[in-house]
Amino acid sequence: MAECRAEADLDDGVGGAGGGSFVACSLEVKCVDEWLALTSSQLPGDSFLWSITSVRDVGKRILLGVNLVIFVSQGGILPTGAPFSTCLTMFPKHGAVEKQLLPSPFFISLSSNTYTPGQVITVELTSTNGTLFRGLQVKATRSQGNSERAVGSFMVSHDNKTKAFTCDGSYKSMATHANAADVKRVVLKWTAPRENIGDIVFLATIVEKFDTIWYGIKSTLRTASPSNLVEQSKLPELNSSMDDVDFSSCGSEKSCFLYPRYCKSSDCLAAASFRHVDDMFLQFELMAKNVSYISIGFSEDVKMGGDETISCTADGGVLSVQHGANPKQFNDRMVRDQLSNLRIKQADGIIMCSFTRPVMAVTRTVNQSAPDLQFVEKVFDLSKEYHVMLAWGTVKLGTDVINKHVDLPVVTDRKVNFQGKDIYRGSSLPLEVRAHAGLMALAWIVLAGITTAMSRYYKDWFGERLFFIGLPLSRLSYLRRLDSSSFLFTSMDWSRYV
Asked: Which part of the chain is the Reelin domain (predicted)?
């Protein structure tokens, strides 16, 4: 018999190396025919022979399509580098792991203190004491102006340790690791922009091991011609002072989404208001209690995925308003150049912010599989109706990097008309889940309970009538359980498992 073996395609999805990590893999079994042949030869009698062919076909489909979650040790992980969604955050997706608070032993060394347009600069990442590291992210941004957009480009490395990919700004504008090998230093080649954009700051994050992250490593590259700069693109300024958000005028002067369902104003845990400034712009106000960020999302349905998001974060003195998109069940942060009039404050455990958004905005992500720079754009036109989502949670300590929301996002019961003045309510549980719970309660508590009580305590009283009453109730209970399960089955995003 041929040797049995299994091949697995691994995707760590964390953008870092080392440590124990759960890794999703698709397992392809190469010995299905041999295994089934051996099994069938050992079956007693001939009663199973008629189904061997069917079993083989079904077995192949089941085994070839099975999805496993396996624990991979520190030495066994096969990382593919930082994901695109960390382009702006520069923080690996390692769950609850925080950055190191001690001074970093790692630093960035540049081959020149100044640059001219198009010049190639050698960028070296190493440590003061020879400490080994496994994961890295490094990019360059403007020192002044639009500091969110990456500039310049990294050349493809031939050392098999690093690779470059495109962030929202320029081609191959971020470098990251390509494997989990321990190294003492990494040397990269970076090409400066073709225009003199002023001083440039290199930013790096080093992953020493899975739970040891060195964040915010910087080095400045000066322009060789400070007096000969091209016009700087700028981000909207963030004002750290604002008046308290007034939700008492909801329904009369502006539309609001209030949560929990029966709150009115100051007793709400989270809320959002929106009104037209003019035909071209909408003003939004967000509020949440006892959290570090509040996010609003615009979605064509009640599920996460394919949405536009805007988030406000406040952790001590680190404040931000972020524009992003949810391609699927994760967030890609974008440059916030479509937002304006940004205000935010945090006081007495309450975070509040306001911003102006054009009626029509575009989310932009990068197709990393394309050989050339290729953006995937989606237009969100708020002259149309969308479901509004609210989510809240914490940020990484001392940063504006958002953690996964602490509760399920709440979604409006109906789509929002941004042209009107209304009060919207919502729930954190999708309609399918609420229907599932209601039907299960009806089936198990009401119908099954009545049938059981009748059979046990009223059998003599009902006599033969018990059969004609109990049987329909039992069947009805069974049908309600099927209906309940079908709600969850049809509401799942099965494309995630294909």
From this structure: 72-237
Contacts of 248 (CB under 8 A, 6+ apart): 265
Q: Is residue 465 part of a domain?
A: no
Its domain, for residue 94, covers: 84-223
Report yes or no on 355 lying in a domain.
yes
Ramachandran sector of residue 173 (left: φ over 0; alpha: ψ -120 to 50; beta: rest): alpha
Structure tokens at 380: 């969100």
Q: Residue 229 falls within a domain, yes or no? A: no
Q: What is the number of structural domains in the chain? A: 2
Provide the CATH number for the domain around residue 115. Answer: 2.60.40.4060
Q: Retrieve residue 425's tokens.
A: 């309510």
Bridge partners, 11 (sequence order) = 24
Shared-domain flag, residues 266 and 216: no
Residues 282 and 219 reside in one and the same domain: no
Q: In this structure, is residue 77 part of a structural domain?
A: no
CA distance 107 to 150: 19
- Tokens representing 14 are 């964390």
Is the same domain home to 384 and 262?
yes
